[in-house]
Amino acid sequence: AVVSTQSTGERYGDYRAGFLRGGLFAYCRHPNYVCEVLLWWVFALFSLPRVGINWSLVGAANLTGLFTGSVDLTEQISSNKYPEYAEYQKQVPSYIPSLRMMTIK
């Protein structure tokens, strides 16, 4: 719910540049993808004690690869579309937020 409200640009950050920089997007450029991947890994890991090694691990790994490819594609599109995006890429990690950024703010 947090990511969904932030992606509209109405509450957090300024959308005039064409992309968001506030809220979760100040810590990670793709919080939606990160949450989706983590969700699937949690499902896979919770299934281990009950059924052991199973296909959910393969599914989580495949979805991680799919979302990683999506990040690469959207990064390329955004870089070409918005000149300010290159500076944003230098300041904010793509996938995994740094602990240093979280403690400074």
Estimated structural class: mainly alpha
Classify the beta-strand content into a percent band.
under 5%
Q: Could you give the count of β-strands?
A: 0
Helix/strand order, N-terminal first:
HHHHH
State mean pLDDT (0 to 100 scale): 83
- Report the total helices: 5
Helix fraction? 55-70%
Major sheet description? none
Rg: 16 Å
| Model regions low in confidence, pLDDT < 50 over at least 5 residues | none
* Cα separation of the termini: 22 Å
Q: How does the overall form come out from the CA principal axes?
A: elongated
Describe the structure.
- The chain is mainly α.
- It is built from five helices and no strands.
- The chain has helices at 2-7, 31-51, 55-81, 85-91, 99-104.
- α2 (31-51) runs antiparallel to α3 (55-81).
- It starts with a helix and ends with a helix.
- 11% of the residues are buried.
- The mean pLDDT is 83.
Comma- or semicolon-separated keywords:
105 residues, mainly alpha, single chain
Short description:
By secondary structure, the protein is mainly alpha-helical. It is 64% helix and 0% strand.
Secondary structure: elements and pairs:
Layout: H1 2-7, H2 31-51, H3 55-81, H4 85-91, H5 99-104
Helix pairs in contact: 2-3
